[in-house]
């Protein structure tokens, strides 16, 4: 049944559209510089389109600047562990500064994502969610979230031969718990605060 969006949700969507459109225009010189660096560093496309699960379980293609070799999908898993040899030289910088996430402003403009919301996950891992964890799919996924801030150095935790088991049994449940707790008390003001903390974290 169709539900009229709340005033808070409508304001959040307006903020998403205005901020994404302004960001794409203002950051266009940076986009060009990053694109040139990627092309000079390794062969392949500038953008990577990752298969992700969005709101209500709908799949979409998430845009990122390519930070790995062009055939990374065929060389390894969908999660990047510490010391992953598929990451390019420019890619290491992009991932450390989170600049690889900037093209997701396109997803925000299209309505597939929001500035703030649970990070969209690979379908292979969403299939492991419990019914309680699947509640995160009621929200539009975001570029940043409470969990992504808390685990912004996630790759450092995923080291050793059993890194994927660590992700499935420890990291992923902890991230989902953080996002569910945040969503239970979320407001437009708290979203703005999270965006500001994310900007500061880029220089951490």
Brief summary of the model shown:
50% of the residues lie in helices and 10% in strands.
Strand order of the largest sheet: 1-2
The share of residues in helices is: 40-55%
Largest sheet data = 2 strands, antiparallel
Count of individual beta strands = 4
Determine the number of helices (DSSP H or I, runs of at least 4 residues): 10
Mean model confidence by pLDDT: 89
Strand content: 5-15%
Radius of gyration of CA atoms, rounded to a whole number:
17 Å
Structural class: mainly alpha
Count of spatially separate domains: 1
N-to-C order of helices and strands: HHEEHHHEHEHHHH
Shape: globular
The low-confidence parts are none
Architecture overview:
The structure is a single chain. With 204 residues, this protein is mainly alpha-helical. It has one domain (7-201). 50% of the residues lie in helices and 10% in strands. It contains ten helices and four strands; from the N terminus they run ααββαααβαβαααα. A two-stranded antiparallel ribbon has the order 1-2. β1 and β2 form a beta hairpin. α1 packs across α5 (104-110). It is globular. It starts with 6 loop residues before the first helix and ends with a helix.
